User: Fold Lactonase family protein from Paraburkholderia kururiensis.
Amino acid sequence: MHRSARAASRVPASSKAAVARPYRFSRPFITLIKGLAIMASIATTHALAQDSAAAPADGVYDLLIGTYTGPKSEGLYVYRFDTKTGDATRVSVAKTVNPSYLVVSRDRHYVYAVNELPGDNGPASQRGGISAFRFDAASGQLTFLNRVSSEGNDPCYLSFSPDGRYLLTANYSVAADPGGSFAVFPIQPDGQVGTSVLTVHHEGGGPVKGRQDNAHVHSTVFSPDGKYLFVQDLGADKIYAYRYTPDGSRGLLSPTETRYIPMKGGSGPRHLVFDNDGRYAYLTSELAATVTVLRHEDGKLTPVQTLPLAAPGFKGKQGAAAIHLSPDGRFLYASNRGDANEIVIFAVDAANGHLKVVGRQSSLGQTPREFTIDPTGHWLIVGNQNSDTAYVFRRDPQTGLLASDPKRIDVGSPVDFKLVSPS
Assistant:
């Protein structure tokens, strides 16, 4: 699925490029505050008491793969992944439509997936969904629980609030109405996802016709201290900043004093990741195919460095996508699609967060979107959406480089990857 094609075909070029208000809340905060007393009573033991599971003694993890469904994919796949050998063996599949992004509860009992609709050929008025599954990590089996509307179209990202009470989704939205948004959903005691308690629509656009004719929310990322939410809007070239106040003192979410961080016009901010101590954040900008280092201080992000993903002299099409740090924080990885189709490897300067390119590795296929690095730091798994393959690259923790002889997984339109300890 190509959002660039969808945007070009469905969003009129005459869409308004800017409006006075950068975003609007779909429900008054007073209503939300009244509801907080009820929401606070939601039993969230499985979320609040979550701890990272210990590494399995045999080194074998569950590998969940989200896909775009079609002739070669039925939905959400579970594999056994051996961190000692890099081998992956298919265990099960849960049938669901376009589960292109996943999150797993920290107690490993539940998995949540977007249902990215309408997709390439559906009506722009069709809303996407979020599906909840009970997960038996020991057996690798998923059981469908429920599905709710994502309150927008083309949901493409999921994240938990710091306290585990809420699940947030980014609705990319190919249509000018309702436009890009993010929505907030309560997690029920039985793991089901409740209907949205808050939907925030962004407004405006950018200079790239067909890609920035309206807002396109691409990710929702909380700061490590849990106080702030940053929302990356590819269409508006902005990172919106919100305070998270579940006590209701400011509503559940409220804009910070700075409201948003403007990025370079036409750059298209996409995904954001923080280092472990929250001093620095790293941003991929899809349209410009760059990585930006941002210094973080009390809810404020300040750009300090921007680097291109492409090698010097590269002239083909590009599209920055996913971004992840190695478990030890010493290296940063970003995927670049288009004609590049590679993983770019950066060394991180611990003193100032700055980046230096130290390597590149072809993804050995077309359209590498998401990828993951296993908890041991010895493997990087990337999916080639348009080649129906995923590759498992051996990673050198000392140099950050990837070996050129990966193991192959054949799976239809792979997009997202999550590793879970089964024990």
